[in-house]
Structure formats: C-alpha cells, structure tokens
Design brief:
Strand content: over 45%
Number of strands: 8
Radius of gyration: 19 Å
Number of domains: 1
CATH class: Mainly Beta
Structural class: mainly beta
Helix content: 10-25%
Number of helices: 1
CATH topology: Immunoglobulin-like
Shape: globular
Strand order of the largest sheet: 1-2-7-4
Largest sheet: 4 strands, antiparallel
Length: 130
Amino acid sequence: MKSIILLCSMLLCISFVAASYPAYPVSIQHKLIGTWQDGSRGQTYSQYDIVLSNHGNKNIKQIVIGTDATCRLRDNNSIWNVKVVDGPSFIDFLILPSYQDINAGASYTFGYIIHGSSPANLFVKNVIYA
C-alpha cells in the first residue's frame, strides 16, 4: 500500500512539472488594436496584433501555429506577416514567411482582422530550429 501511495505521489509531482513547462519555449500574446461596427455589413470586427516570443536559446527557422473555427477572418486580405494554410472549412494553421526567422530571445509580430470581438484560438503545433 505504501508503495502505491509513493508511486501515485511521484506521478502527481511529474504531472505538475510537465504541465508547467510548455513543449516549446514560445509564447503567443494577443494585443487588441481596436473593435468597430461595420454598418454596411452589419458586423463587428476586431484587429489584433499577435506577438510570438522565442524564449529559447536557439533561433526558430519555422513555426506552425494551429487554430480552429474561431479564426474567422474578415476577408482574404485581413491577415499579414504570416502565411495561411487552409483546411477544408477554416484556416488550419499559420506559418512564418520563408524569409523570416525568430532569433533566440526575440519576437515576431503578425496581425489579423477577425469577425467579432474575441481573439482566435492560437497554439504552437510545431517548431523547427535553425
């Protein structure tokens, strides 16, 4: 019984440590630039700047940012400084332009205009280091 309790305690400690360290040392910060009503379309739109920060000690050559159906762009011209890869019904993921790296300790900003006032769900799917 003591060994089972000890094992469970160790697994619990490991799960807390694993949960506090992300798989990649990259953060995604949403900065609301503004929200407005478009009377001609009867829609609310919001503009966000997204800051990707490399907290690691290696340069990032490519990063894959996943999203979901919450990433409803105003139109095809409403996202900049990233490349969009479309899925069957919505944006599947975003990647850096081929000429762009994110140096260790540096950040990179891209932006978009989205339907509504809530930011899109964005998450790091993969990182390729230089």
